Amino acid sequence: MNDLLFYIGCGMILCAIAGAILLRWYLVTYTKRLLYCLDEMITGKNNFTIGEEEELLMAKVEVRLRQLYEILRQEKEQLQKDRASLESTISDISHQVKTPMTNINIYQELLSRDDLPSERRREFLQQMNTQVNRLDALMESMIQMSRLEVGIVQVAPVLQNVSPLVEEAVCQIALKAKEKQIQIKATCVPDLKAVFDKKWTIEALGNILDNGIKYTPASGLMTITADRTDFFVRIRVADTGKGIMEAHYTKIFKRFYREEDVQQEEGIGLGLFLAQEIIGRQNGYIDVKSQLGEGSVFSIYLPAEA
What we know:
Structural class: alpha+beta
Largest sheet: 5 strands, mixed
Helix content: 55-70%
Strand order of the largest sheet: 2-4-5-7-6
Number of strands: 7
Distance between the termini: 88 Å
């Protein structure tokens, strides 16, 4: 009996020792595997593999590590994109501010001359005022753009009539159109409704109308129509301006972009960029078609009522 107990005790001790050895081997293997995965993540590699048996603790940890790695990788890529975008924006702003500031300094030096004729003085003052207005417009547009991009101002689309939207946007550019003797014709389908934020959409539509007036010769025509498509409400703005090359359709919506032959016109190249941002944030989009020498057609598509 004593011998049996002795053998049983020895067996239990051997099993405990074997279990401890096996446990140590498993922990060492697991730790090495975990360290390997972490080293791969630290060095930016993605070569670690998931274990075959998903129920194993090691495989579960590896799955979590891969998920963590993907999250960190995506955040790093987004951070790099944001940094590149910020650098590009700062460069663009610097370029846009530099020109009017240089001109203002030049006019200031000229105006300080005692022998400057009064007629030239008035001319230089007018030119300086133009540059100041340009800076003011740039700052105002940059404030609006930054508010949209950082989410300080949120668009709040609701179902409402389109007709007041078109009427108010036309009223904003009516004076400019009258000064250039540009005729405006606007028609809207009765009781037409869409889902949009009125304040911001007026801003977007107004920017497109202002662009049309700016680049349409005197005594031209601008036609605005609002109707319903299958899934959207379309606000179509057609002008008889100089037109846009097809290769430039996407470029005109970029921040600060201005075509070479319109540099003499007032503007900073943010109107269409802001319009696209505003409409895009309301699940809509803007389409453009144009013919050189004949005019352009900008179409705003807003979500229709359900």
